[in-house]
Design goal:
mainly beta; 54% strand; single chain; 35 strands; 5-stranded mixed sheet; 6-stranded mixed sheet
Length: 504
């Protein structure tokens, strides 16, 4: 099956070939007259002018779209009075041809003027050349669809023998966006596209490509059973249609320890492949299985993905940060250190081992969370521009922390579940190893039995916070702790370090 689409830019180029007689007819409005209804600008940048004659005041506006705001075209004047006026159009150099249209309006009439800069040039190139090409240049490239990441806008990976490039947006047959599914593009299809090259976060990509030709793969996954396997394991089944010479299966190396083929049954073009998944003792896992066939010595592929639930791994933040990006679920507990987005819940949480950025907490606005609260979340190890973050976070538990003065805490009943955030000046350090200090706030003072590096610290991790952070007598210290009593003396117990200010 082949799909071929014409490019809108070709129509603009053809329009410029209209005869001089037709041009004269278009410019002879009684209310507005222009010396030329077509303006050609040099591809290396420059200007061109027309003479405008109007019987009344006039305005000029560009014809823009969401895909082309025509920011590259400058107009010397966008309004004027009756009589003759010179209007100059200017543009900087461009790599490829581009076109625009402006509307001149006066006395209820509209005169159209077409602008062209250079001629459209589309370079056919392999992926490696596209990746190294200049931003803004339009390329035509052919390859195989290897992954599809967004089926609304049409974001996917195109691969040929020289490499892979990301496609960010695919136009439909009418040049529209957000209609990728209408193109019936699937993993394994051979495809030729045209689009401008750009760079995002250091990675090359083609943007809003137009499909020139689509050649469907000779092997296709029609349906699957049990694509989401339980933690206990089980059977996964893939139903395929293959018009090639048999079907081969490739299970990635990192999945062979838990996933295997149990049977393959073929009848004509139909093939049923069954897989066995072992019980999962770790975190969530998944893999992508590649099916291939050959015809006339040419290889065709398609793929499908499966996932398997696993145990939630409860780890300190430092271990989470060191993990690989994936579907494994992690349970993290820490103090909200700051809030970057109050609508979606983009927050930073920290424990004794480190700090992690949480890219949104499900239903955050209804949770009434604030800085200082102790929260437990479950989410995946994700990343943005190689920076680790928690993705798909769900709040599992929260402990509200109340900001209070020393005087207020002294009036509170003892409790191992009520946490307070208290700030005061260190008047004495009784135990520098574990951080036993006295805090004074105004005329009130309280003993803090232990100041630890963060939530979750145990054993040796509780030691030497004061020395590590160079905290001294006279510094202002903020801790999170519960209020208890020892030998009839009120105190803050097992303090969690939040922040400090040096007296110096």
């Amino acid at each position: 099956m082949k799909l071929k689409y014409l490019f809108p830019i070709f129509f603009a180029a053809i329009a410029l070939l209209i005869s001089c007689d037709e041009e004269e007819t278009m410019t002879l409005l009684e209310e507005i007259q222009v010396s030329s209804s077509y303006v050609s600008l040099p591809v290396d940048g420059g200007s061109a002018s027309i003479k405008l004659t109007a019987k009344d005041s006039w305005t000029i506006e560009k014809v823009t779209t969401s895909k082309d705001p025509v920011e590259w075209l400058n107009i010397s004047s966008t309004s004027g009075s009756s009589g003759e006026s010179d209007v100059t159009f200017t543009a900087e150099a461009t790599l490829d041809g581009r076109t625009a249209e402006v509307l001149i309006k006066s006395a209820g009439k509209t005169q159209r003027v077409n602008i062209i800069q250079g001629l459209a040039q589309i370079s056919e190139a392999p992926v490696s050349e596209v990746r190294n090409g200049p931003d803004g240049k339009t390329f035509q490239v052919s390859g195989v669809v290897t992954t599809i990441s967004n089926t609304e806008y049409g974001n996917w990976d195109l691969t040929d023998e020289t490499g892979t490039i990301y496609i960010y947006g695919t136009l439909d047959a009418k040049g529209g966006t957000k209609n990728f599914m209408s193109l019936n593009i699937e993993v394994g299809d051979e495809i030729t596209v045209v689009g401008p090259k750009s760079t995002y976060a250091g990675s090359p990509q083609l943007v809003n490509v137009t499909v020139v030709e689509l050649r469907k793969s000779l092997v296709k996954v029609d349906s699957v059973e049990n694509a989401a396997l339980p933690i206990e394991g089980g059977e996964f089944i893939a139903y395929l249609t293959s018009k090639g010479e048999g079907v081969s299966v490739e299970i990635p190396e990192d999945a062979k320890s838990w996933l295997s083929i149990s049977s393959i049954q073929s009848s004509g073009e139909n093939t049923v492949i069954k897989f066995k998944a072992n019980p999962n003792t770790g975190g969530d896992r998944g893999t992508t299985i590649v099916f291939s066939t050959t015809a006339n010595s040419k290889l065709y592929t398609t793929e499908t993905s499966i996932t398997q639930k696993g145990a939630i791994l409860e780890v300190p933040i430092s271990e989470f940060l060191a993990a690989e990006v994936g579907d494994t679920q992690y349970r993290l507990t820490g103090v909200i250190d700051s809030i970057a987005n109050t609508k979606y819940g983009n927050v930073y949480i920290k424990d004794f081992s480190g700090e992690a950025y949480v890219y949104g907490i499900q239903d955050y606005e209804s949770k009434n969370l604030k800085v200082g609260d102790i929260i437990t979340i479950v989410g995946k190890r994700a990343a943005y521009k190689d920076a680790p973050q928690v993705g798909g976070a769900v709040l599992e538990k929260s402990i509200p922390v109340t900001e209070a003065t020393v005087a207020e805490v002294l009036t509170k009943p003892d409790s191992s579940t009520d946490y307070y955030m208290v700030t005061g000046e260190i008047t004495m350090i009784e135990n520098p190893t574990y951080g036993n200090v006295y805090l004074k706030d105004g005329d009130s003072e309280i003993y803090v039995y232990g100041v630890y590096p963060g939530f979750g610290a145990t054993g040796d991790f509780r030691k030497n916070l004061l020395a590590d952070k160079d905290i001294k007598v006279g510094d202002k210290l903020t801790v999170i702790a519960t209020k208890t009593t020892y030998n009839y003396k009120p105190q803050l117990s097992n303090g969690i370090y939040f922040s400090h200010e040096s007296a110096e």
